[in-house]
């Protein structure tokens, strides 16, 4: 029998995980702030033992991480599954434990059920915990896995949760609620992460905000069906968890087969939501292939809202000419360049350059783009097919479907079954051919409908389809070194902590309305850093909301992301072009700060303004935006405060307007606007008096340590 220690622990960056193994099952005693090196872990174990109430089992049994019914746990078990109606209530015993300074692996077994289950905890140096679980069937009968969720206990002083919901052009809207007895389950069943996907779920101490309170977060590394959970039992104990949402029969394990669940990304902050954001950003940015580590994020022009399906060389050349003057670095041709795709009803699936619109291929346009100093990007939607396409006419059976019926269409399209090897190879080879023929730096990859009846030869196949798209992206990158991929899904329908490992950019939303974008970007940025989020200056009148915004407001909104333009620039005035040029050079001069610093959001006494910014890691510089969202409830605005600065250092503070002037509606503006010097502590605790901005206006504030 291998030696099983009584406790194992990990700590990094002020975060600690302590797991007790002494009761025969892994029990998380603590995940949160580092409890100090003098802690007696055995004493913590003793102190954590529960009293035994009346009308319960005679002894308190720690349910541990597997939460088995057989241990008297009456909440949701970690593993649900069965073998022909048997083995539905396993009892796992610890079989082996291995650990090193940053990870712990615990293997457990239920001999009589023939099930092996294991968990791996890995704590990054930034204090981000990854929890990976897997289950293996060793019996000679098949075992159907229904769910394998990973859970962490929440301290009793955690009373609130926050998660995010949304829809097309309004993704990531927060929902904050009190944790009550019961299970709060955010489920995604549409075969992609979806507009309604939470990306991350938070649990917080009462009233926690951006800088204060304790916050725990959980997010899943998966782009298919998911479930995020918070459960509170009548005992008073609460926990937070997540896992892949498996469809019936999706995972049936034969003898020796294993189900590896998507990993959970977990973090803890003692300094509010900004602390959670900071850990995720530092963790993602520590990757050698993180987009802003590889190279500065190029200023992008996407021509979708400029020309839609109306492709012609002359018009696109005019656009490229203006883009060059402004300083654009990447030019992206969107939907409509291939097959019979003159509108959204046909041609999807035929990834061959259209003779009708591009009789000489894409080379003439790419030459125009490159000769004006820009790189070229191209749109694909390789997981989809219009029934009116050569591909569908030839292979109608290559769509995800249940035998004998055709799924309802979404945007006149069906989902190609990429788990079908021939279909996968077909898509790969057509796209590979385009990428081999032309000099293409970047592809925008769309996914414009939900999955229904997502079956491969009768069997539910969302899981396999999700793995196939990861594989397709990875193989395209392998064959075309340096290729960047943007994940788009009718805007922000496939942004998640799984796709961060396969894509370089996300299209945050089809909504380019700057006011809506303020909210969408703020909440998407809780765990996804700005350098991965496409944010474009759209047309003066938004195409999705028909609101009209001044250029400066759109420009300041687009600055806090991987910035770009999506607008018919040939229609712009000289003044607008000059403002865009000034904004473009501001973006280029400051993107290294915006894409590497700490994101800070300042809590406000009312909802009329947002104040958010990026502070350099060494606190030497910062850029904040003061955003007027709506009319103020008071006649003069609340103090403009800044957090995250060096309290004892002096900073020069000034207001800058690199993309045109905001509309001020006061009689006089304060006199500090050209510069004032205050300590970081004064800027945090007292602040400065802002000018009065009209609603839907914004200004930038630069801070520089002296
Ligand atoms: C989706 C995307 C848009 C655009 C269109 C093209 O809606 O979100 O940005 O690419 O498809 O059809």
Distance between the termini: 63 Å
Uncertain runs: none
Q: Residue-averaged pLDDT, rounded? A: 97
Structural class comes to alpha+beta
Helical stretch tally: 13
Task: Describe what you observe in this structure.
The strands form eight sheets. Strands 5, 6, 7, 8, 11, 12, 14, 15, 19 and 20 form a ten-stranded antiparallel beta sheet that branches. An eight-stranded parallel barrel has the order 21-22-23-26-29-30-31-32. The chain has a six-stranded antiparallel beta sheet with strand order 33-34-35-38-36-37. Helix 8 packs parallel to helix 9, helix 10 runs parallel beside helix 11 and helix 11 runs parallel beside helix 12. It has 706 residues and is an alpha+beta fold. The model has no long low-confidence stretch (mean pLDDT 97). It contains 13 helices and 38 strands. The protein starts with 6 loop residues before the first strand and ends with a strand. The site of alpha-D-galactopyranose has 11 residues, from loops.
